[in-house]
Amino acid sequence: MTKNFFILTILLFISLNASGQDLYKVKADKLNVRETSDPKSKIIGFIPQNENVMVLDSSNTEYFKVKVNNGEGFVSSGYLTKISSTPSKQAAISKPMVEQKGTKSNSNIIFLALVAAVLLIMLFLIFRFLTNNKPLMVISSIIVITIGYFCYVGFIVKKNITGKFTSESDSQYLSFDFKSKDSVTIEDTYLDTLFTTPYVIEDNIIRTKQQENTILLMILDEKTLVGEGFTKAVYHKK
């Protein structure tokens, strides 16, 4: 009897561990993450709608323990939909993302090479056939050179962001202060903290990280940034 009870306990423990590593999708517009399973406990963050979240412990049927930016937290299970019981599949998603990045980079190089070739051909034709019409030759040349300049600025010159950008919406991150070309100070409203982290700019996307959480900001113009995912808000330069 004791042996059977011991085996049953082990099986139950294994089963709980297996079920505690499930992948869920958020159904709510903005799902609050609390410090404990108490519904009145402190809110330490939130997860946007349709985001995937890893459930670490589902033994409490009302509040699941999940992995968040700064460690772990608890969310209401009623706002989650189960996706998969094998978290390793989530890691496999990153592989095509890396491949896509390389493809995009190659596409930019090919596009720039084609643009450069077309502009050179246009200049050649202008100087070949418009030599008798000097005003038209000059105007056409200026237009071609201007197009080349904007292509150079848009695709070759590295974008630079400086200054402090803030948001008035209810977002986890209140402000981004770009003090140097490779580091930014971020104000986290839910944790009431400031932290400084490196960042990179890829095309018009600013990418930085807070521990295991990736923060993405799209550069709309030099005074406006648009956040995605955990950072879903509009930030304006002060």
Shape: elongated
Mean pLDDT: 75
The beta-strand count equals 15
Biggest pleated sheet: 8 strands, antiparallel, barrel
Distance between the first and last residues' Cα: 72 Å
Q: Quaternary state, please?
A: single chain
Keywords: Membrane, Signal, Transmembrane, Transmembrane helix
Signal peptide: 1-20
InterPro entries: SH3-like_bac-type
Protein name: SH3 domain-containing protein
Structure commentary:
The chain crosses the membrane at residues 109-130, 137-157. Pfam families: SH3_3. Residues 1-20 form the signal peptide. This is SH3 domain-containing protein. With 238 residues, this protein is an alpha+beta fold. The chain folds into 3 domains: 17-89, SH3 type barrels, CATH 2.30.30.40; 93-155; 163-237. Helix content is 34%, strand content 37%. The chain contains 4 helices and 15 strands. The protein has helices spanning 2-19, 88-92, 94-129, 134-155, and strands at 22-26, 30-34, 43-48, 52-57, 63-68, 71-76, 80-84, 163-166, 173-178, 183-188, 193-202, 205-210, 213-221, 224-228, 234-237. An 8-stranded antiparallel β-barrel has the order 8-9-10-11-12-13-14-15. The longest helix is centred in the middle third of the chain and has 36 residues, at 94-129.
List the helices and strands and how they pair.
Elements (H helix, E strand, L loop, with lengths): L1 H18 L2 E5 L3 E5 L8 E6 L3 E6 L5 E6 L2 E6 L3 E5 L3 H5 L1 H36 L4 H22 L7 E4 L6 E6 L4 E6 L4 E10 L2 E6 L2 E9 L2 E5 L5 E4 L1
Antiparallel strand pairs: 1-4, 1-7, 2-3, 4-5, 5-6, 8-9, 8-15, 9-10, 10-11, 11-12, 12-13, 13-14, 14-15
